[in-house]
Amino acid sequence: MSRVRRLTKEEVDIYDVVDPKLAARVRVVDIPFIPGGYSGITLGPFVCLADPQPTTGTSTLLAHELVHVQQWHDQGLAGFSWSYLRSFVVGMRNHRSWRKAYWDIPHEIEARANAEHWAIRQNRA
Asked: Which of 34, 42, 44, 86 has a CA positioned 20 to 30 A from the CA of residue 78?
């Protein structure tokens, strides 16, 4: 069974990778399975996680997914979807590897970098 929750006030304050007003609208959905073996996927303001994350503002995974929330917000549904898919297709053509194509998507590179910098600032790295 899925569980849906809002970010806590502490999380909104700590996860500075996303605008606080936008973070307050995020819904975190714990789901039992995400295809591809991934830990999380973001669809607009919905962050779907395969494993529940702590509500203490200590999850680098949640920080990563919140970067995607900001990307969706900034680029809109069509812009984000088109750019993400196009980058994946180009990566598949260049690498002939699903995993390498995914790792080269600029949205993923940005999310990994921002979450890593967030973790360093929070002394979580």
From this structure: 34
Structure tokens at 2: 């899925």
Residue extents of the structural domains in the chain: 3-121
Quick check: 103 pLDDT over 70? yes
User: Long-range contacts: 12-18, Cβ < 8 Å, 24+?
Assistant: 13/57, 14/57, 14/122, 15/57, 15/62, 15/63, 15/66, 15/118, 16/118, 17/63, 17/66, 17/67, 17/70, 17/114, 17/115, 17/118, 18/66, 18/67, 18/69, 18/70
User: Per the structure block, which two tokens stand in for 111?
Assistant: 């999310």
Look at residue 124 and tell me whether its pLDDT is greater than 80.
no
User: What integer pLDDT is reported at residue 125 of this predicted model?
Assistant: 59
Amino acid code (one letter) for 45 = P
